[in-house]
Amino acid sequence: MSHTPSRQDFDHYMTPNYSPQQVIPVRGEGSRLWDQEGREYIDFAGGIAVNSLGHCHPVLVDALKAQGEKLWHLANVFTNEPALNLAKALVERTFADKAFLCSSGGEANEAALKLARRWAVDHHGEHKDKIISFYQSFHGRTFFTVSVGGQPKYSQGFGPVPGGILHATYNDLESVRALVGDDTCAIMVEPMQGEGGIVPGTQDFLQGLRDLCDEHQALLIFDEVQTGVGRSGELYAYKNYGITPDILTSAKSLGGGFPIGAMLATDAVAKSLAIGTHGSTYGGNALASAVALAAVEFIDTPEVLEGVKKRHDLFREHLETINRKYGVFKEIRGMGLLMGAQMSDAFEGRAKDILPLAIEEGLMALIAGPNVLRMAPSLVIPEADIAEGMARLDRAIGRLVAAE
């Protein structure tokens, strides 16, 4: 007898580290989803900036089907054509000379941090081990990355955190200058903080980090797990600033929904990741690589990237219209199709209360902390879906305001 899973099954069978919404989506097409009851939702969440081309985009489906009939996985004692093609595409489209493929953003950041430490040892000695990151940053859930991330709530309760990690204030160059020194091996930064509230880095701040790294012979790591692969309106956000890092990490939109991550680096740095120093069982998986290559080639076109910038303006216009009506937002910010609306003083901490109301109105959205409503939809979301989704958001916020 077949069993139809229910939301109660989650509480019964799965660890309680998540608290998902009560609806269970079962089918998606483009920027729309349908749940077990057949109810339709417009998706402004994008799997947390993952579903770069929406749900079941034919380009990705075709790539998955074609590769699925050829080769799925090999141990890393072999290489495979899709992995090589993806690495070539990423290198040729970015500053990088080498790519390391893995399975997630957390893995990509773990690799970046280990590489930075290894490079420092190789070139400067054991004393050069300090890593500077930023308060409110987020770099993954491995113990190393969660410790480098600037949100203690994610590392508390798991024992002593790794040493040699310092935190500065985002967009405050002087706070970095007070920490950096000859013992600094790397500065790790998101060009736009995602989980920390959708806060773009300023040009002067990010350029200042580049200059400090050059001055102190340290590496600049850009965490582009959330901003990468078209999300910012460029293939990678560093291109918006004209500032080149030494190491860059990528995931989320890279696979369009298929789990994959990548770390990109210059030749001078990548040499320190010598044979046996690091690895990933599923890194360079043929299925994932084939899908990611299709995503990168489709997204890295003038049509798609210019479309992201146009859709950014549409999202902003709609959010500003809603705000003129209800006065719930203090600031609307972001780049491309990673946008955040910070709640006004009267609705401080209430962003999370919008999500269940939005679900009831047929809209999926996100938060970035308790005070920022976050949106990370498909990069090719139709304008009609933007308009309808915003109409549903208007109704949800209207209900929030009416309940006051």
TrEMBL record:
The modification N6-(pyridoxal phosphate)lysine is found at K252. It catalyses: N(2)-acetyl-L-ornithine + 2-oxoglutarate = N-acetyl-L-glutamate 5-semialdehyde + L-glutamate. N(2)-acetyl-L-ornithine binds at R141, S280. Keywords: Amino-acid biosynthesis, Aminotransferase, Arginine biosynthesis, Cytoplasm, Pyridoxal phosphate, Transferase. Binds 1 pyridoxal phosphate per subunit. It comes from the Bacteria. Pyridoxal 5'-phosphate binds at F138, D223, E224, V225, Q226, T281. PROSITE patterns: AA_TRANSFER_CLASS_3. GO terms for molecular function: transaminase activity. Its EC number is 2.6.1.11. Belongs to the class-III pyridoxal-phosphate-dependent aminotransferase family. ArgD subfamily. Homodimer. May also have succinyldiaminopimelate aminotransferase activity, thus carrying out the corresponding step in lysine biosynthesis. This is Acetylornithine aminotransferase. It comes from Vreelandella gomseomensis. The gene is argD.
